[in-house]
Amino acid sequence: MLLISIVGPTAIGKTALSIKLAQYFNADIISADSRQFFKEMQIGTAAPSAEELAAAKHHFIHHKSIQDNYNVGAFEKDVLQCLNTLFKTNNVVIMVGGSGLYVDAVTKGLDEFPEVDKSIREQLNNELQSKGLKHLQNQLNTLDSKAYNTIAIDNPHRVIRALEICLGSGKPYSSFLNQGKSKRDFKTITVGLTAEREIIYDRINQRVDIMMEQGLLNEVKTLMPYQSLNALNTVGYKELFNYLNGEWTLDFAISEIKKHTRRFAKRQLTWFKKDESTLWFDYETNVNVITNELKQITTTELH
């Protein structure tokens, strides 16, 4: 049983490759993009189009609401159950997504952290409201610079999680990572797509412009009543909330979406480059080259 995991920075072409590989291996696709779970968020998350969804069987796309409390632990459990079912009829399953923590939860298992006093999280949430995210980021950088440089630092939930472990345990959050991992009864091959940084950034800028043309602003308008939800505290939505709330101009909001997405892509690459076993390909590599290499590996792995 083999899981082919496709990773890489946002806007690099992971979705297109996943569909080609799914068709080649006659396999289903599991999404490990934590933003594409939510049915209310379609344009701003670059979720697969109706045509793409029809081209291969997808799982974990728009299966939750932004009002649902869904986290990486629940995702790990759900995907393992799904894989157990899928592997009964096919030896290969494709997984695709840029959410490194969610990818690792499936392929390696989640790290175990100590229990900490709930009052610490309450205090950090209060500090987020009163002093802002930058204050918490600086605090994490002081307590655990390794975590500061590897987690999704623009995500308040991730920052608070790392800080509460640091403060509650007296040890760096990063010291609990990769200690004891769950064994998987399937093998994983990770395929990474990449490009020169200038190309990645240009593709991101183009994608944001396309999203705006597709109606991202209208999508965000419909979500205004829910803007305080954690699921919507994410790039592409929070910037346009600022515009709609009269805090920013539209041009500035769009430029901030591009800037924050570029920053996110940089952190994605940092995360995925940690896995030295990943097979990296240029984003323009012909799919036949990738399938030929995978075919050689899968022939060995599955026999």
Automatic annotation (TrEMBL):
One of its GO terms (molecular function) is tRNA dimethylallyltransferase activity. InterPro entries: Dimethylallyltransferase, IPT, P-loop_NTPase. ATP binds at G8, P9, T10, A11, I12, G13, K14, T15. Substrate binds at T10, A11, I12, G13, K14, T15. The record marks S99, R121 as: Interaction with substrate tRNA. Keywords: ATP-binding, Magnesium, Nucleotide-binding, Transferase, tRNA processing. It is an enzyme of class 2 (transferase). Pfam families: IPPT. The keyword Nucleotide-binding applies. Its EC number is 2.5.1.75. Its cofactor is Mg(2+). It catalyses: adenosine(37) in tRNA + dimethylallyl diphosphate = N(6)-dimethylallyladenosine(37) in tRNA + diphosphate. Residues 33-36 are annotated as: Interaction with substrate tRNA. PANTHER family: TRNA DIMETHYLALLYLTRANSFERASE. Monomer. Belongs to the IPP transferase family. NCBIfam families: miaA. Catalyzes the transfer of a dimethylallyl group onto the adenine at position 37 in tRNAs that read codons beginning with uridine, leading to the formation of N6-(dimethylallyl)adenosine (i(6)A). This is tRNA dimethylallyltransferase. It comes from Gelatiniphilus marinus.
